[in-house]
Write a structure and sequence with these properties.
- The protein has 42 helices and 52 strands.
- By secondary structure, the chain is an alpha+beta fold.
- Strand 8 and strand 9 form a beta hairpin.
- It is globular and about 120 Å long.
Length: about 1400
């Protein structure tokens, strides 16, 4: 049985025997490729060759490339250890042809290596192959030449929803090289479940892909057209771990020799004997990726590649903790890793000490917080009741204890708990963006400047030479000539200009010919040619013309000095700090140099001095800067260091400076180190975790920098009246004096504070730079009410702060229609005004006559109102009531009389002037509605009516009748408004308010204000608590009388109440007829709105007409709703970033998903409680079935709230997750049922899982015989492909995954061509859903798109004539929509 190391070597040997160059594995950090996070395929290092931007001295190559997939779109991290073939690190065996051989040889090479007894000797009958559906050439080679039976050759078409989107068609990006591929599969045998590729059972483990051979024969343009490549190429890949599993006769990659040894060593190190534990597999995998990433220069950090490395290390450490590891263990696996990786482990072995050190430091750092973090997580998970861990806790674990989100998710998955990822991302958006540095080929490879041929570089010896123009590019396009004033890129046949590389900037200068001058501003490489970038200053420059290329020699000389100094700096850093220092980047210009390098800590001043001194020492030694040309292996043997991010040919330039520095470098350098003159470090900083940066200047620039520093020192000395030599001593003396003066000042402040004793100062609490009396009042009140049973209620009434109000007390007031008593609003402001007014009147009795003014009580009342509003924190209702009262006071000062109705109109106009958005507040409408009701009530049904018969009533009777009269009016007139806003009312609310309002108004609130202002004098707080207790206990008797009311019932009740009011008006109308118009009425001092004269019969007739109109409107609306009721309706509820779709027929409902839940201040809140349940109550819909598409929080977060409200309904779900339901049915493909004449059919998934993710979404086709609706949940494109093939035209599509581009693929849309597409997404969501790609797809298929983020709640009414759409925000005017952020633009 071959070992993994033997298989790796045999692969390289086989292709070497076929004329292939064996190329070493490239670094896991891609070279000069910012589009990749990590090297993830064998072809990465040859990408420029395939693109025609680079040439190699060979046309055939073979590699054993190390790869990492743990970030961006290739993120396998969460599955590693739990599946048979997921890894963060793997090796990809590959052979490549760059315009050499093609399909015939590639297929025959693969077959020979796999089946020949000399090589792997696999049984031919065990091998199956796939080809692209239209690739007849490959099919014929397999069938007719190789001899594979037709039944084992499978054609795979475009199975991913778009042309050329196929498992058997490979593309480098949206544009550029691409082509069909053929894949080879190994059949493990029928004792393992699974089917061949392309079959419904292809996801099983029986048939495993072992080799993919890509034929790059096309160049895809931006418009999608395919052009044949002039020189087609081959790119193949075979996973070493997979082929090892086949040859070693095991089904899981974790059972091959490499992993068995690593697992055994891990078990030994952590002290466990259970070798089947999944945590061992996780650690064995992670040590490979972590060790190789560090060896390739990645350092744990909080961004980019370093963050991914940190996540992997911490995941491994946490699994070690699970296994019982008590001390750092991870780094101890490195020697075993080097052993099992054999020849491929030499890179790690060379840097073993640094790898072990960094792993140990990272583990020890994390271990210090791991125990505390896990303890916090355990406590948080124990308190989870809805199956969702709050995003705040997840963020705290990340921010405080260093738990990456996927590590927290790992722990949660073990306990079947989800994470509120939306909440987490809200808390740490910046970190999330850094962590998601993802790989994406997003560039158009056809827009890259590509020129055949090569520019000969003469700049090592020349700074001026004649050269022929071979190509011109203007605006990225090839042109034959350019004219004066045009910018261009000029390609020369030969050039003395150095093109930017190795950190050295490109040369500048001129291209001159007769009458022509081109100003070169920069020089860049484009493959093998040099591009001279600049602007033509005069003349016309044409292709084929000869020019004199002149480099700016002075600028180049300064640059060369800085470049040589960079080499000396690199060597000095390694000598002073250690050989772990590796270059991470550099910038060498004519003015300065910048050098980035790996080092885990800040450099001390002493170390910086030592580094600078060492470099200057080597400058003075005046080494000859020697350049040698030799092959790469000889250069490495000489000890030459390769620079970060650079590619080197087989023959390289080796730059030597004495015995101090030996590096590979293609840049321009000084002739001797002495030419540098002087080296001066000007800055040392951190650019990322584990990455330091040194900035320095040399030569004349260094001298200028020193002169500037000397000038600053001299100016500083002059300011301190000192000389440079004694400047430090002078500064020290001044510092000592300042400290002494500061102490004396502090002592004086303390003494003054003790002597002052001012109550004003004592009552001030400093917050930042402000003094807040309100805060002091609040803190004192909290101390004085500590231990009182209703502290929260007292504080709410005094300050409008409900943070201390317990949920039980709040529910009592909420369910008895008395919650308005707790919110500081118009009632309380009016009371404050009244208290101030009457107190001022009493005060006037003790003042001399000359101080008595009729305006004084009014002014004093206003001041009390302002003070009370301040205590209440100027909340919106308080501010509104205060502004209204101030406006009324101003009108009173003006001595102008207004009727109550006119006064109300003026106040509302004034409030809207102050805040035009006030109508968006429900409390605004409630306040305006309540005042309007009172005005109407006291105008048409005055309390004075009782005394029309001139019967004298006692004051007590008038008070009791007044309260009863007030509450009766609100019951009759205000109840419809309550029904409209709250869809229900408390049956006993009339009695509750009748008792509670006067007790609060005239007893409790004044007493609480007295307690606040007098610091609790006369036990006023305790007395307030006793009274509040009595009122609250009395109100609790009425609790439970709250009745939810539907819209239809609300219309009926409104009509009935209107008729009651109309009957009262009718009776009063006849009563008024029996009296003369001049009959006086008894005036009321208590209610200022009370009429004091009888209304005319005309006024009553108008009021009766209004009542009739209101009743008619209610009855008409009710009839309209009944007669225009659709056959059935589909509601897409506005639940933010989530989904909730309601199917309604005959007053019954089926709910598809419930929207999200989240952690709030008083527990778990959900859109089910805020949106879905109120809507069901308002519409009078009885829910009969709940369907959950999958278990993500944004779809199932409200499930428990729904099931609590409807405990007997049926739950249909694709997972085994428990939601506390009574009746459950599984969502499985093929299940069908009928509900009230509507047919439901489940299209996906095919199996039940413990936790359903996006791909396992419950997909449902709904039809009534005329219309078809498709509900897809968050199904991805692959899932869509599995069910869409047999679908036809549909009318309505619920767009998958809120408009993510991973769903709603071309194949689904092409099959269904939906008339309408409904998207449920949150406005300004973190993922920018819906994705523009999805919108573009839908528009292309002419689907009408509606999005809840724009339209709010969307209702589709299905009628015989068609589909009617109603949108919650459809009636908003455009300008108002823009103001409140609802406009799509």
């Amino acid at each position: 049985m071959k070992t993994t190391a033997e298989i790796r070597q045999s692969f390289l040997d086989f292709f070497h025997s076929k004329g292939h160059q064996v190329v070493a594995s490239s670094s896991l950090v891609p070279e000069n490729d910012p589009t990749l996070l990590f090297t993830n395929a064998g072809m990465n290092q040859f990408k420029d060759v395939f693109l025609g931007m680079d040439k190699r001295p060979y046309s055939r190559a073979t590699t054993a490339q190390r790869c990492v997939r743990a970030g961006g779109k290739h993120n396998d991290l969460e599955n590693v250890g739990y599946t048979a073939r997921h890894h963060t690190f793997f090796e990809m065996l590959g052979n490549f042809s760059f315009g050499d051989y093609f399909k015939h040889d590639a297929i025959n090479f693969a077959w020979e290596y796999l089946t020949s007894p000399q090589w792997l000797g696999l049984p031919k009958e065990k091998l199956w192959v796939t080809v692209y559906e239209t690739d007849n050439e490959a099919y014929d080679i397999w069938h007719k030449e190789v001899g594979v039976p037709a039944e084992r050759i499978i054609r795979i078409g475009d199975n991913k929803g778009a042309p050329y989107a196929s498992d058997n068609f490979w593309a480098m990006g949206d544009t550029g090289p691409c082509g069909p591929c053929t894949e080879i599969f190994y059949d493990h045998g029928d004792h393992i479940w699974g089917g061949p590729p392309g079959s419904p059972e292809e996801d099983g483990d029986r048939y495993i892909e072992i080799w993919n051979v890509v034929f790059m024969q096309f160049n895809r343009q931006a418009d999608g057209t395919m052009e044949k490549l002039p020189r087609p190429s081959v790119d193949t890949g075979m996973g070493l771990e997979r082929i090892s599993a086949v040859l070693q006769h095991v089904n899981s990659n974790y059972e091959i020799d490499i992993f068995q040894k690593l697992i055994a060593k891990t078990a030994e190190v952590v002290g466990t004997t259970d070798l089947t534990n999944k945590s061992l597999r996780v650690i064995a995998d992670h040590i490979r990726s972590c060790a190789y990433l560090i060896a390739d220069g990645v350092i744990p950090s909080n961004e980019g590649r370093g963050y991914v490395l940190r996540r992997i290390i911490r995941r491994a450490v946490r699994h070690g903790h699970l296994l019982g590891a008590k001390e750092a263990f991870f780094y101890k696996l490195v020697p075993t890793l080097i052993e099992v990786m054999a020849e491929a482990g030499k890179e790690v072995k060379e840097k073993q000490a640094n790898v072990e050190k960094l792993l140990r430091l990272e583990e020890e750092q994390f271990a210090r917080t791991l125990e505390r973090g896990l303890s916090l997580l355990d406590d948080a998970l124990a308190q989870v009741k809805d199956g969702v861990l709050s995003g705040e806790v997840a963020f705290k674990l990340y921010d405080t204890y260093g738990f990456p989100l996927d590590l927290t998710a790992d722990v949660c998955r073990e306990r079947d708990i989800a994470i509120d990822e939306a909440g987490f991302e809200h808390e740490m958006e910046a970190q999330r963006l850094r962590a998601q540095s993802a790989s994406q080929f997003g560039m158009d490879y056809n827009n890259v400047i590509r020129v055949e041929g090569e520019t000969k570089f003469e700049g090592y010896t020349e700074s001026e030479s004649l050269a022929k123009v071979t190509a011109l590019f203007h605006d990225g396009k090839s042109v034959d000539s350019i004219t004066a004033g045009q910018s261009a890129v000029v390609i020369l046949e030969n050039t003395p200009f150095y093109a930017e590389s190795g950190g050295q900037i490109g040369d500048s200068g001129y291209l001159i010919s007769q009458g022509v001058q081109f100003n070169v501003k920069d020089t860049q490489k484009y493959g093998q040619v040099f591009g001279h970038i600049g602007e033509l200053e005069q003349g016309t420059l044409k292709v084929g013309q000869t020019v004199n290329a002149v480099v700016d020699a002075a600028r180049r000389h300064q640059t060369s000095l800085n470049h040589s100094a960079t080499h000396l700096l690199h060597a000095a850093l390694r000598q002073v700090l250690g050989h772990h220092v590796v270059q991470k980047g550099s910038l060498v210009s004519d003015t300065a140099l910048r050098f980035d390098f790996a080092h885990p800590e800040a450099i001390t001043k002493a170390q910086l001095n030592e580094i600078e001194t060492l470099v200057n020492q080597k400058v003075r030694e005046n080494f000859v800067v020697q350049t040698d040309i030799m092959d790469i292996e000889a250069a490495k043997a000489k000890g030459a260091m390769a620079l970060f991010g650079e590619k080197y040919a087989d023959v390289v330039r080796v730059l030597t400076m004495g015995d101090f520095s030996v590096e590979l470098c293609g840049g321009i350098h000084a002739k001797r180190t002495g030419d540098i003159g002087l080296f001066k470090i000007v800055a040392e900083t951190a650019v990322a975790a584990g990455i330091r940066r040194i900035e320095a200047v040399t030569g004349e620039n260094a001298i200028n920098w020193l002169h500037n520093q000397q000038r600053i020192l001299t100016q500083s000395a002059d300011l301190f009246k000192s000389d440079v030599n004694t400047l430090v001593e002078k500064i020290q003396q001044l510092q000592d004096k300042a400290k002494k003066a500061e102490k004396e000042l502090q002592g004086l402040k303390e003494k003054a504070a003790m002597q002052a004793g001012s109550d004003l100062v004592k009552s001030a609490v400093k917050i930042g730079d402000d003094f807040s009396f309100r805060t002091d009042f609040l803190q004192n009140s909290l101390k004085q009410t500590e231990g009182l049973s209703l502290q929260g209620l007292l504080i709410a009434l005094a300050f409008g702060e409900r943070a201390w109000l317990d949920n039980k007390t709040w529910l009592i007031y909420q369910q008895t229609n008395t919650a308005h008593l707790i919110a500081i609003s118009g009632l309380h402001i009016g009371l404050a005004m009244g208290i101030g007014f009457f107190f001022a009147r009493l005060l006037q009795l003790a003042l001399p006559t000359r101080f008595i003014s009729p305006q004084f009580p009014l002014c004093f009342g206003v001041l009390i109102v302002l003070g009370y509003a301040y205590l209440a924190g100027f909340s919106l209702p308080t501010f509104r009531a205060m502004m209204a009262l101030l406006f009324i006071a101003i009108l009173q000062f003006s001595r102008r009389y207004y009727t109550p109705s006119k006064m109300l109109c003026l106040v509302v106009a004034f409030l809207l002037f102050c805040d035009p958005l006030m109508p968006l507040s429900v409390s605004f409408w409630l306040s305006v509605g309540a005042v309007t009701c009172l005005i109407v009530w006291y105008r048409y049904v005055p309390l004075s009516i009782i005394e029309w018969q001139h019967q004298k009533l006692s004051r007590k009777v008038r008070w009791i009748l007044g309260l009863f009269h007030l509450q009766l009016g609100l019951l009759i007139l205000f109840t419809p408004i309550q029904l409209f806003f709250f869809n229900g009312f408390a049956l006993n609310g009339f009695l509750a308010n009748l008792i509670a309002v006067p007790l609060y108004s005239f007893l409790l609130v004044p007493l609480i204000l007295f307690a606040v202002l007098t610091n609790g004098a006369f036990s006023s707080w305790h007395l307030s608590n006793t009274i509040a207790q009595g009122i609250t206990q009395f109100l609790s008797v009425f609790q439970g009388s709250y009745v939810p009311i539907s819209i239809n019932l609300s219309l009926i009740l409104t009509a009935l109440l209107s008729l009651v009011f109309g009957g009262m008006l009718y009776g009063l109308y006849f009563a008024s007829q029996r009296k003369t118009k001049n009959t006086p009425l008894k005036s009321s001092r208590f209610f200022t709105l009370n009429s004091t004269k009888i209304l005319s019969s005309e006024a009553y007739k108008q009021a009766l007409l209004g009542v009739i109109l209101i009743s008619s409107f209610c009855i008409g609306t009710l009839g309209y709703r009944y007669f225009t009721k659709p056959k059935w309706q589909l509601d897409t509820l506005d639940v933010g970033q989530g989904l909730a779709t309601l199917i309604v027929k005959e007053g019954k409902g089926v709910l598809y998903d419930t929207g999200p839940a989240w952690q709030s201040g008083i527990g778990v809140s959900s859109m089910a409680e805020l949106e879905i349940l109120p809507y069901l109550q308002r519409e009078g819909i009885e829910l009969e079935t709940l369907i959950l598409s999958h278990d993500d929080n944004d779809h199932s977060g409200g499930a428990k709230a729904i099931l609590a409200a409807y405990p007997e309904i049926e739950l249909i779900t694709p997972s085994r997750k428990n939601y506390g339901e009574t009746h459950r049915t599984c969502c499985l493909q093929g299940k069908q049922w009928q509900w009230r004449g509507l047919d439901f059919k489940i299209l996906s998934p095919t199996q039940i899982t413990d936790r359903a993710e996006n791909p396992q979404s419950c997909v449902i086709l709904l039809t009534d015989g005329q219309y078809q609706i498709l509900l897809t949940g968050d199904a991805d494109v692959a899932t869509e492909r599995s069910f869409a093939e047999k679908l036809g035209k549909i009318n309505v599509l619920q767009v998958g995954h809120h408009g993510s581009k991973t769903s709603t693929g071309e194949f689904l849309l092409g099959q269904t061509k939906p008339d309408m597409a409904l998207i449920s997404s949150g406005r300004w969501n973190a993922w920018n859903f819906p994705h523009p790609t999805v919108i573009e797809r839908l528009n292309r298929y002419q689907s009408a798109v509606e999005n809840t983020a724009i339209s709010g709640h969307i209702r589709l009414n299905f009628t015989e004539k068609g589909i009617e759409i109603e949108k919650a925000r459809g009636d908003f005017s455009p300008w108002f929509a823009r103001v409140i952020g609802l406009s799509p633009k």
